[in-house]
Specification:
By secondary structure, the chain is α+β, with helices and mostly antiparallel strands. It folds into two domains: about 5-60, Structural Genomics Hypothetical 15.5 Kd Protein In mrcA-pckA Intergenic Region, Chain A (Roll), CATH 3.10.290; about 65-225, Pseudouridine synthase, CATH 3.30.2350.10. Helix content is about 15%, strand content about 30%. The protein is built from five helices and 17 strands. It has helices at about 10-15, 25-30, 120-125, 145-155, 190-195, and strands at about 5, 30-35, 35-40, 45, 50-55, 55-60, 65-70, 100, 110-115, 135-140, 155-160, 165, 170-175, 175-180, 200-210, 210-215, 220-225. Strands 7, 8, 9, 10, 13, 14, 15, 16 and 17 form a nine-stranded mixed beta sheet that branches. Strands 3-2-5-6 form a four-stranded antiparallel beta sheet, with no helix packed on it. The longest helix has 9 residues, at about 145-155. The chain is elongated. The protein starts with 5 loop residues before the first strand and ends in a 14-residue tail after the last strand. The structure holds uracil. Uracil binds near residues 105, 106, 189, 190 and 191.
Length: about 240
């Protein structure tokens, strides 16, 4: 998802009958408002969510949208699918077709999925360097032991990607259930980590991403996050 930024003079020429060279005069005549203030330079940046008004007519009013969804089993983390219902099918939002998914969950994984039209925000969440904690509740087919905690903390070698997983924090809740916090999102990562112990994941539920948690949101429900949610980088014990 590329961020769409252009210079004010180029933006004016592309979105009105005025040319690039007219923009300087329009600025001097106080005819352009950028985010509610008079434009002051032809080089001002017009970014994805900048609000631009020329002679009282709005040229750009693209508002950022942030949604969270509690994804049920059997729903695909995609915007289109021929076989299964998608996360977009569960959302009632007038601009849902502009949204993209931030960090997919497998078909049978339940829990927190974030959707937005803000490419910069989703990029930041997804970047490995951001080290944002994603927390899952996991139900296993075999009993857990303290060895898992140590091995997950050390990291597990994934031959396919030729990487060792970042230190992950495992909290054992009962013989067959645990809470796992990861700061990365490799393909089927949770299942593959428990696969190291030949312990099959029977149920997987994402409860939080950074500071955003499902708390109180029913299965299949979604709601808007009113402000760009903050990031709290959790560096764990690495
Ligand atoms: N890890 C998995 O194995 N599956 C998911 O859906 C998310 C993380």
């Amino acid at each position: 998802m590329k961020s769409k930024t252009s210079r004010l003079d180029r933006f004016i020429s592309q979105n009105s009958d005025f040319s690039i060279s007219d923009t300087r005069l329009l600025i001097a005549q106080k005819r352009i408002l950028v985010d509610g203030c008079w434009a002051y330079s032809i080089q001002q940046k017009v970014a994805e969510f900048t609000h631009v008004v020329l002679d009282g007519h709005c040229l750009k009013d693209n508002k950022p949208v942030y949604l969270m969804l509690n994804k049920p089993k059997g729903v695909v983390s995609a915007t289109k699918d021929l076989e299964h219902p998608t996360v977009l099918d569960l959302i009632q939002h007038p601009r849902k077709n502009e949204l993209h998914i931030v960090g997919r969950l497998d078909l049978n994984t339940t829990g927190l999925v974030l959707l937005t039209n803000d490419g910069a925000w989703s990029r930041k969440i997804s970047l490995p360097e951001t080290k944002l904690a994603k927390t899952y509740e996991v139900t296993l087919s075999k009993p857990l032991s303290d060895e898992y905690v140590a091995v997950f903390q050390q990291g597990i070698y994934f031959a396919y990607e030729n990487i060792t997983t970042q230190p992950a924090c495992l909290e054992i809740l009962s013989d067959y259930s645990a809470r796992l916090s990861l700061v990365e999102g490799k393909y089927h990562q949770v299942k593959r980590m428990f696969g190291f112990f030949q312990n099959e994941v029977l149920a997987l539920h994402r409860v939080s991403v950074g500071d955003i948690s499902l708390a109180g949101l029913g299965m299949g429900e979604s709601r808007a996050l009113m402000v760009p949610p903050p990031f709290t980088e959790r560096r764990g014990r690495d």
